[in-house]
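Dear Dr. H.,

I hope your travels went smoothly. While you were away I took the liberty of generating a structure for the chain from your last submission, since the lab meeting agenda had it listed for discussion. I wanted you to have the full record in hand beforehand rather than looking at slides cold. The sequence, exactly as received, is reproduced here:
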Amino acid sequence: MNRRSALRALLSAPALPMLAACATGSPAPPRPEPLRVTGTVAYRERIALDPSAEIVVQLLDVSRMDVAATVLAEQRIRADGRQVPIGFELEVDPSRVDPRMRYTVSARILQDGRLLFVTDRAYPVLTYREGNTASLMLTRVER
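The corresponding predicted structure, in token form, is as follows:
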């Protein structure tokens, strides 16, 4: 090995670990676990749900007055022969939940686009010590 090659090898050796570190980069920070809101949807009437009925459950930010609620999460459940109570699970990124705000869960049951049942009261969750479960009792919509 001549002097020039030895010098080149000597100067490039310390740079190799730095280049390797730059190439791999630091690992991305782990994502926080999503918040889960769970519960059931039911109604009092003794009416069987049609298998084609669809249950729509939403987690809403209802903090702002005179403004439509913001939907943070939604689950659509096909009845497929199941009857109430029917369970649901909504997931939301914790960074979207502000402890100063108010959140509720609402639901509706549709059949062929026609509204059959709907929540008619607030079911608060997540903040102000409300927890993360809700048992929703829907009211029949009169035709």
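Two observations you may find useful: The chain has a mean pLDDT of 88. DSSP finds two helices and eight strands in the chain.

With kind regards,
E. W.
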